[in-house]
Design brief:
Strand content: 25-35%
Order of helices and strands: EHEEHEH
Distance between the termini: 21 Å
Shape: elongated
Oligomer: single chain
Strand order of the largest sheet: 2-3-1-4
Helix content: 40-55%
């Protein structure tokens, strides 16, 4: 079972809203390729997994934004670390 939920909002600097959307799409592709469970929401994406792995995914996302031409990136991160296990479903089941 996963030990962490990490929500990330990545905000790459870009010259237009369309460019930002394209960069965010690339960041989400990195999450998808990482193999972790995740959900995309309007203002952030939540991932489920081992804390160290999720933080490495965020680091990769930031590096990719720079590689794609963004001069800087803001990443807003929320972490729920629960060593005995946690899932997105467990936190949201009463709303589904």
């Amino acid at each position: 079972m996963a030990t962490a939920l990490v929500s990330v909002q990545i905000i790459p600097k870009a010259s237009s809203a369309e460019e930002v959307i394209g960069l965010v799409d690339e960041a989400i592709k990195i999450i998808d390729r990482s193999g972790v469970s995740y959900e995309v929401h309007p203002l952030e994406t939540t991932m489920e997994g081992e804390l160290e792995h999720l933080l490495a995914v965020i680091a990769e996302m930031n590096k990719k934004m720079i590689e794609l031409g963004s001069p800087n990136v803001i990443s807003q991160v929320k972490i729920l670390y629960q060593p005995d296990g946690i899932t997105m479903g467990r936190l949201t089941e009463k709303y589904r």
